[in-house]
Design brief:
single chain; mainly alpha; two-stranded antiparallel ribbon; 22 helices; 2 strands; about 70% helix; transmembrane helix; LPLAT_7/PORCN-like; membrane
Length: about 475
């Protein structure tokens, strides 16, 4: 509880400070102030454990600047995730375990530094492609030669101070969301933060936070997670009660995550970070998907702005969408962007890249077995859902479609809740004890459903072939 109070106080202070931060017009001054406040936040939470972050910054910055841009992203990835594993294993090695929120800072720093190395690698690849096209153009090719973006030029000329400012700027340093170097740099150098309705965007998010926080407190008081670890829970409660207990525990988890992520987004919106004109078709994590700054010069004040670049969660769609697969897209979207861009799309094997991405996500979350049970369990549920959507929902209409969608929605939240209890119980012994107390019914049910679904699919395929053959024979007779 003490950690949560410190966390909330720091987030509230960061949100309030944004009102002053975005008014700095001098980029260098803005960098210095943002970094100074960020270091103060890290020091307040971490104490001497802050040395871990400084060491990671130093090694990663040296790799990014001095290693070949062809491999700096791989070297940085290996170092940062290796150090993250070591950082979380300190307690097992007999040292003091870092505070919980220090772990969150280390998690975000890992994404930022590894992401920066990948951005440098991308900029290097673009520069080489442009050089090649220029050579072709001088050989008589009349096609227009592309130019390197200003951000890409900056990435290829990074110094230690640039990386330090990006790593420790107070916006996102505590709990995210993940912000690319480009988004950070745009907030420093472009005028959009002074033109967007930062207060209005922040207030809109703050309006719903009391609801989620209140639901979290009420439901966690009635159905505390700790009770699922008590002897009474297993000896005096029925099988149905134990099985259904995953619903309130995952509801509590969702409300806590919604509260924390929206507060983190408020830090960004109040500071003006992630503000772009809506005409840029901005996407979470990525930022603008279409940019033409020159055409906007002089009209910045008349444009409509949004903060999609730092939008980390879509609560409404997470809750109301029908399928597990859809819900995953609306959850922790900036981190998902990182995983998609730097793991999924870069992984050499298409066959195993989904599993590899989820494995990296589990490693990023922590060393506890519960993270692997939960996150790596998703690839085994998704094919079942996809199969039944294809068999029954895809071509359904009217009331039948609605009934099937509702059943799919219930199945979605049961899957999230059943897998999510492992995420919350953390250790193998607690997870195994709980799952065995409900006879592993979730896994048994999913195996049975998959088997039945495959049989139905085969029968339908055989029936379709038989019908096609009969139609062909009838056509020949005619």
């Amino acid at each position: 509880m003490k950690d949560d109070i410190i966390y909330l106080v720091l987030l509230a202070a960061c949100i309030g400070f944004g009102q002053f931060y975005r008014k700095f017009s001098d980029p260098e001054q803005k960098k210095l102030v943002g970094t100074a406040v960020g270091l103060l936040v890290v020091l307040s939470v971490s104490g001497f454990h802050m040395l871990h972050m400084l060491f990671c910054y130093l090694v990663s910055a040296l790799l990014i600047i001095y290693a070949s841009p062809r491999i700096c992203h791989l070297a940085c990835f290996g170092f940062m995730f290796g150090y993250l594993f070591f950082f979380r294993s300190l307690a097992f090695l007999g040292y003091d375990s870092p505070p919980g929120h220090t772990n969150m800072i280390q998690m975000i720093l890992t994404l930022k530094l590894v992401g920066l190395a990948f951005e440098v690698n991308n900029a290097y690849t673009k520069s080489k492609d442009i050089d090649e096209k220029r050579k072709n153009a001088t050989s008589g090719d009349q096609l227009p030669v592309p130019t390197l973006h200003n951000v890409d030029r900056a990435l290829l000329k990074l110094n230690m101070l640039d990386i330090f400012h990006y790593s420790f700027n107070y916006v996102g340093v505590l709990t995210g969301p993940y912000i690319t170097f480009k988004t950070y740099r745009d907030a420093i150098y472009l005028p959009f933060s002074g033109k967007a309705d930062c207060i209005g965007a922040t207030v809109e998010k703050l309006k719903v936070i009391p609801l989620y926080a209140g639901l979290f407190l009420v439901v966690s008081y009635i159905w505390p997670l700790q009770y699922a670890m008590d002897k009474e829970f297993y000896e005096e409660r029925s099988f149905i009660y134990r099985l259904m207990y995953v619903w309130p525990t995952f509801f509590i988890f969702r409300m806590r995550i919604y509260t924390g992520i929206l507060l983190s987004e408020c830090v960004c919106t109040m500071a003006g970070v992630g503000a772009y004109p809506t005409v840029f078709l901005n996407k979470p994590g990525h930022g603008p998907s279409k940019e033409d700054y020159n055409s906007l010069v002089g009209s910045e004040s008349t444009l409509e702005y949004d903060f999609e670049a730092v939008r980390n969660i879509d609560v409404i769609n997470t809750e109301r969408c029908w399928t597990f697969r859809e819900a995953m897209k609306y959850w922790n979207m900036c981190v998902q962007y990182w995983m998609a861009m730097y793991v999924y799309k870069r992984f050499p094997s298409k066959k195993y890249r989904t599993l590899a991405t989820l494995a990296v996500s589990a490693i990023w979350h922590g060393v506890y077995a519960g993270y692997y049970f939960c996150i790596c369990g998703a690839p085994f549920y998704l094919p079942i859902e996809d199969l039944y959507v294809k068999l029954f929902i895809k071509d359904a209409t009217g009331q039948r479609r609605m009934v099937l969608n509702v059943l799919c929605w219930i199945s979605k939240f049961f899957a999230f809740s059943y897998l999510g209890i492992a995420f919350l119980l953390l250790t193998v012994d607690k997870i195994w004890y709980y799952y065995s107390s409900v006879y592993f019914i979730g896994y048994v049910l999913w195996i049975a459903l998959y088997g039945v679904g495959v049989m139905i699919a085969k029968q339908r395929k055989a029936s379709a072939k038989r019908e096609e053959r009969l139609n062909q024979e009838a056509t020949k007779k005619d």
